[in-house]
Amino acid sequence: MAKPRKVRGEGKDVSNSFPEVKALIFDLDGTLIDSKRDLVLAVNATRRHMHLDALDDDVVSSYVGDGMQKLVERALGDGYTMAQIEEGMAFFLSYYRGHMLDNTVTYPGVREALEALRSRPLAVLTNKPVRFSRAILEGLGIAPYFRRVYGGNSFETKKPDPLGMNTLLAEFQITAREAMLVGDSIVDVQTARNA
Asked: What are phi and psi of 72, to 5 degrees?
């Protein structure tokens, strides 16, 4: 049997950390992957399509976390009809589909951490649409680490609603106390608490 690998930069074996945790559920954007640049470019391409000026990177980043529909709505601002929002959303999805891996990368240490944790069930629960999430994980070569990948359109509700988390708990046959949700935002904290 191979000796557990250490996470780069940490200098310690994580395979026995948190022994009560039987499964880890990860957010995607801002947690496993740095997708900021591709999201900013897609948002600003959408704004140009809608005859609007580009937004600063930090402004666009502050809109991320509640799904792509909310991202586009926030990026367009107030005063748009549902038809205009749908037009912007259609353009955004088309553009992002073709460019979602132009600049997106895993954060340093992610691959090593996933390798060290692979003895436990791992999943992704994100508000990004599931087909984009799976395509990004596959494109970055880390999809095989995850037993389940659920996106913002996998259920009737998105995070912070606990439906996705509770579904994973049931599928992994564990309690909430036996799972750890790893994320980067208050939405992830609320999701874990709600579950």
From this structure: -65, -45
**Catalytic: 13?**
no
Q: What pLDDT, on a 0 to 100 scale, did the predictor assign at position 193?
A: 96
Residue 160: cis peptide before it, omega within 30 degrees of 0: yes
Q: Which of 27, 29, 38, 188 is catalytic?
A: 27
pLDDT at 159 over 80: yes
Q: Tens digits of per-residue pLDDT, 70-123?
A: 999 999 999 888 999 999 999 999 999 999 999 999 999 999 999 999 999 999
Q: Would you list the DSSP string of 125-192?
A: E-SS-HHHHHHHHHHTT-GGG-SEEE-TTSSSS-TTSTHHHHHHHHHHT--GGGEEEE-SSHHHHHHH
